[in-house]
Amino acid sequence: MVLRSRRDVLLRTGLGTFALAVGRVAAQDGGTAAATDARAKVVEDLVAANRILADQGVLDAYGHVSARAPQDAGRFLMSRSLAPEMVTAADVLEHDLDGNVIAPPGANPFLERFIHAGIYRARPDVNAVVHCHSPSLIPFGATGAPLRPLYHMSAFLRGGVPVFDIRKAAGDTDMLIRTPELGSALAKALGPHAAALMRGHGAVVVAADLPHAVFRSVYTELNARLQAQAISLGGTVTYLDDEEARKAEATMGSTVQRPWELWRRKAMGK
Ligand SMILES: [Zn+2]
């Protein structure tokens, strides 16, 4: 209902109660339009996040990124099963927190959508999740060598990076998070942290929004590379202590829009 038709109704009828009812419908229409805009913005950012993570080498043909639906905390948005570099807005599906595809029905979702569902169920503070198979992270998940913040860009790792071992949760599997129960087990291992490694598989990285989730994913991968280099040099590695990391996280976390815009322009320009 648009203002013009509301005015027309008022002119025609002069009935106050009817005008009120029409006004309410107009307000609802306005709310629906705002929700549609918010969803479209998240879908647009989600497409960009897919392209950026592929461009930055965090995702290849595998891995995925999702965002909680802005209009409903019990839903999340993620592409159908597709290489991230190829994702467009038309590929984005809406899922519930059990991992069921709500819309469009019949679409082909990712096998490991339960990673995202489990984390959104367990972490109300999380609105964006990345699941990657980044090669630099695999040795840390396999050896027990803890991934720790080596420099200020990855200070968000300061709380530690837990390792999820699927064998302890479910015995011998194909290593994939393909059930709601495994999604819950992974979310439990993640706890309140920004990232968790998955032994023999990859990692999950979470944040309050897509730009922060992308930033953290890029710098978790880079930290792993730098940490392996530092360890291989043979000296004593000095990591950020808790206070340094807390201060650095506060500073760097406020600058995330800068790389997001740069990476977005590069990735979307391809
Ligand atoms: Zn995976």
The CA-CA distance between the termini, in Å, is 40 Å
Strand count, sense and closure of the main sheet?
Answer: 8 strands, mixed
Number of helices: 9
Mean pLDDT: 91
Structure notes:
The chain is an alpha+beta fold. It has a single domain (about 40-270), classed as Class II aldolase/adducin N-terminal domain (L-fuculose-1-phosphate Aldolase), CATH 3.40.225.10. It has nine helices and eight strands. The protein has helices spanning about 5-15, 15-55, 115-120, 140-145, 165-170, 180-190, 210-235, 240-255, 255-270; strands at about 65-70, 75-80, 90-95, 100-105, 130, 165, 195-200, 200-205. Strands 4-3-2-1-5-8-7-6 form an eight-stranded mixed beta sheet, with helices on both faces. Strand 3 and strand 4 (about 100-105) form a beta hairpin. The longest helix is centred in the N-terminal third of the chain and has 40 residues, at about 15-55. About 40% of the residues are buried. Residues about 1-25 have low confidence and may be disordered. Zinc ion (ZN) binds near residues 112, 131, 133 and 202.
Topology (SSEs and partners):
Blueprint: H1 3-13, H2 16-55, E1 64-68, E2 75-79, E3 92-96, E4 101-103, H3 113-122, E5 128-132, H4 138-143, E6 163-164, H5 166-170, H6 180-190, E7 195-198, E8 202-207, H7 210-233, H8 242-253, H9 257-268
Parallel strand pairs: 6-7
Antiparallel strand pairs: 1-2, 1-5, 2-3, 3-4, 5-8, 7-8
Helix pairs in contact: 1-2, 2-7, 2-9, 3-6
This protein binds zinc ion.
